[in-house]
Prior knowledge:
By secondary structure, the protein is an alpha+beta fold. The protein is 29% helix and 26% strand. A hairpin with a 5-residue loop joins strand 4 and strand 5 (60-62). The longest helix has 20 residues, at 354-373. The chain starts with a strand and ends in a 6-residue tail after the last helix.
Amino acid sequence: xxxxxxxxxxxxxxxxxxxxxxxxxxxxxxxxxxxxxxxxxxxxxxxxxxxxxxxxxxxxxxxxxxxxxxxxxxxxxxxxxxxxxxxxxxxxxxxxxxxxxxxxxxxxxxxxxxxxxxxxxxxxxxxxxxxxxxxxxxxxxxxxxxxxxxxxxxxxxxxxxxxxxxxxxxxxxxxxxxxxxxxxxxxxxxxxxxxxxxxxxxxxxxxxxxxxxxxxxxxxxxxxxxxxxxxxxxxxxxxxxxxxxxxxxxxxxxxxxxxxxxxxxxxxxxxxxxxxxxxxxxxxxxxxxxxxxxxxxxxxxxxxxxxxxxxxxxxxxxxxxxxxxxxxxxxxxxxxxxxxxxxxxxxxxxxxxxxxxxxxxxxxxxxxxxxxxxxxxxx
Length: 379
């Protein structure tokens, strides 16, 4: 699209979409797989795609979908050495790309919307969202606030608890504190504890402790990924239930069908290996076998959690369910979009195929951007 007399005019009948993937995060590889699936779902008759890979060191590289990527690949490749790109501040989607010696810098055709297919720190935590706000370009997903508070499990759980929504008991440890297993057991009431980095997803850094020795090791492992960790109670006879939430272009949120994660006995819980490494590490039940009243209670809690954490666009809300007890576990504002990921699968089960889901997310991003630009910047 180009801008003429303050109006955007579509070029060749297509929207130009930048897809960000990779990232400076331990979830880098999951992002690459998610992005490949997103590209498969974007209608080539409607969208021109600009793939931008972010290296583990944080460099933004203009990528292609030929080698190691594309609509037929299981994941996209982030070029380690290639043309670096950046958005212009207040540029409305204008991007600069490094060239050769003759043309050191050139400008790309502006993009109309950005899809940040990024998981974890420096992508899902509000940092990239802030950069895109400064660039004045529409982007899919939550804004700076919703992204940052949802990413931090400590802050998110306190907001959920203070809003009167049910969640599991937890304590917080910082890197300066020495792990004390007995104190944690006394505070949480269970000898089995789950230790997690406060700012990480895809179960990276998550482990289970049932003794003082295991607890010390689990805390040390979690501190590899963050300077703050949370320790949660173990919920007996727990079922892991997930619900996808999606806003329409007007900002009205709706909840999907429910899904259930059933880890195999080898893993015991939905670990990173169970999700992405070991084939058959967990079974997905869609729809989840729950009673109608419980189903509606969980779907209602999913929307309330989404609103409490100031989420926008999309989020997957995860629950612990034990009998009739429902506990909000966490919200994922940029959930996995791999071919086995729950978020798109739940919307497919709810009657919304992935291509239409991407259309909805892009429409929401552009409509929100227009509403934001209408706000006055003068008194």
